[in-house]
Design brief:
Blueprint: E1 9-12, H1 16-31, E2 38-40, H2 48-51, E3 56-57, H3 61-67, E4 70-73, H4 78-89, E5 98-101, H5 107-118, E6 123-126, E7 129-130, H6 133-137, E8 141-146, H7 149-155, E9 164-171, H8 174-204, H9 209-219, H10 223-232, H11 248-264, H12 270-288, H13 299-306, H14 314-328
Parallel strand pairs: 1-2, 1-4, 2-3, 4-5, 5-6, 8-9
Antiparallel strand pairs: 7-8
Helix pairs in contact: 4-5, 5-8, 8-9, 8-10, 8-11, 8-12, 8-13, 9-10, 11-12, 12-13
Bound molecules: NADP nicotinamide-adenine-dinucleotide phosphate.
Amino acid sequence: MASTTYRGVGWIGLGSMGCAMATNVQKLLLREGRPVLKFWNRTASRGAPLVSLGASGCDSIERLVTECDIIFISTSDDTALISIVDQILDVQKLDGKVFVDTTTVHPNTTKETSDRLKSRSAAFIAAPVFGATPAAESGSVLMAMAGPGKAVEIVAPFGKGVIARDVMVVSDQPEQASLLKTLGNFIVAGTMEIIGEAQVLAEKSKLGTGTLEKLLELNFPGLAHSDSTRMTQGVYLPEEGTSPWSNLNLGIKDVQHGISCAKDAGTRLRVAEVALENMMRAKDFSDAHGGRPLDSSSGYGIIRQDAGLDFESDFVKERDAKKQHGDSK
Ligand SMILES: NC(=O)c1ccc[n+]([C@@H]2O[C@H](COP(=O)([O-])OP(=O)(O)OC[C@H]3O[C@@H](n4cnc5c(N)ncnc54)[C@H](OP(=O)(O)O)[C@@H]3O)[C@@H](O)[C@H]2O)c1
């Protein structure tokens, strides 16, 4: 750990990503005998797993920020981040504190946040992460970091080997990390669209989804293969009562950021536009089913419907029937 004199590390936001990453930070602090992690979440009960690891909950953002010098943030979107930063700015003394935002937001929001905190002599680092909740739990996400060099150095011990498998330092301008994350999300959403279409063709033409998945495993390992399993293993339509790996609403926000950034730069992400249309229609499906949470890969269900198949694959139908049978016993 770098020789730092900070008094405390804090974490704001314990959603599925935030809780997983904060857990890894708390484990590091415990290992190193440092003061425990302080945390705040809008829904306080979500802090229970951290409390069981010895971390300490704060009853307000103000208290957390007052007591900590390095403060991580993980919240859902731009509006939530702005509202959290509004509360941070209510704290009297922010000089020298380092804020690290792992939320996926539009680069313009990152720049505005950085400017607002800089005007109060605090440092701001954008540190969005690549990888879904299971990767956050195992500390194997990739983290992009951008911000002032000194602040990046202070925060580095929490990056590689703790929150992330690796850290890519992008620039001293925080918004560049958000732009990189937006491009990464475009690649993810575009790949999901391609794999969804390919899997539907494989199913309809009787080649079979398993044969295509084997090809993906042998010849296109990594993203293409994992997207395929996300579809064939029913992750796209999570079992009732379970959380998606990556919420569809957040995925829609991410793809919209990409389309907006492209427009600002005088170009277009046409594949993103196709993916977005399917994701918006998947959201309609969710709304029509009592707001059932869907994964960001659920555009696959729409590709299925457009090809005359049910939104629910056979795998999903069997899984849900088994669950219902189990519940009714
Ligand atoms: N999940 C993924 O696979 C994944 C992967 C990479 C990046 N990301 C990005 O990481 C971020 C977090 O994702 P997630 O999946 O952890 O989201 P999530 O599970 O929906 O959690 C969202 C968090 O934000 C809090 N929140 C929402 N609105 C708020 C507000 N107005 N004020 C204060 N707190 C608020 C929630 O508090 P409550 O608990 O009170 O609701 C919760 O702690 C998102 O930007 C997402 O795009 C997600």
